[in-house]
Model the fold of this input.
Amino acid sequence: MSTIEKALDKLLAQEPVAEAKPVSAADAIVEEPTATLPNSVVTNQTEVVPAQVEPVQLVEAPVVSKPLEAPQVIAEPPVVTEVEPSQPIQTAPHQIVVAEDEAVAKASGQRPELFIDFTRLSELNFVSLATERRLISEEYRVIKRKLINNAFGPLSATLNHPNLILVSSTRPGEGKTFTSVNLALSIALEQDKTVLLVDTDVLRPNVARTLDIQVPLGLTDYLSGDDVKVNDILYSTNVERLKIIAAGRPHHLSTELLASDKMVALANEFASRYPDRIVIFDAPPLLGITETAVLASMCGQAVVVLEENKTKLNELEKALSLLPKELAVGFVINKAYYSRDKGYGYGYGYYAQ
Done:
């Protein structure tokens, strides 16, 4: 048993969680790495850029060496009422104004769509939107299903803003942006869901660089002034169900902006405006950046990305202690290689605090 497994067993023993039905996946086989969490996900991809959900049932990975166990599933979000796009949303002390429906904005030709080169991403082992079935795409289908069930399933009523998902890690370079982008691409394949990917790592933004896109305005531009509206930073892409908000231009108070009332109001807007939307925040690492814990308090779920043979046990415990107790926290183990029929194995699960 690895040190991370022992730590997770210890944490689970302290706060038992309700049982949830295991969700079966394809026969899973994964040789257990040196430091692998009991119900965790592993990926074969070394993150392209420095790149992180919770009590949910543990799902067996598509290709793993031993079946994954399933702790708990966290549930369906409360009924969300869609706000008419033409009506401004008042949130004291800040006001969020959406000028028009995104579909109308797109049709009016105000701004060209961002073009994402999926051939390039596929070569870098990201989730592919092609019809070809690839292992990484299958594995992220398993991961996203747990998140979607948490956001819109029967247990979502126990979470605050269950459709807002924070992705983080203990330290930089463990694969959080790689995980954020893959989750967004995979959720965008859903026929009845949309996804918004927000780069909140304003100190070391990587989403735009990973996707190789140029975005003139972003989150810091909106948070630091009154002349930039939400629609000015919300960009459509060549994927119908995927929209992106970049980190924005550097700002000397960028970290303070993430903890501002205006950011809280924006998170509330994201959570309530569209009932079919998942919002993924690619957040800064948990250790050393206090604003990440503040961002976590605005979300209902969190994914903590761990790097195989690198993430330290004491740092993991400290990072978890910074997250709100009511948050649904899941783990993804990144950069772990399992050879079996030229494939990689994934496992994914949740730990309930």
Summary: The first helix runs from residue 3 to 14. Confidence is low (pLDDT under 50) at residues 16-102, 104-109, 342-353. The chain has one domain: 3-351.
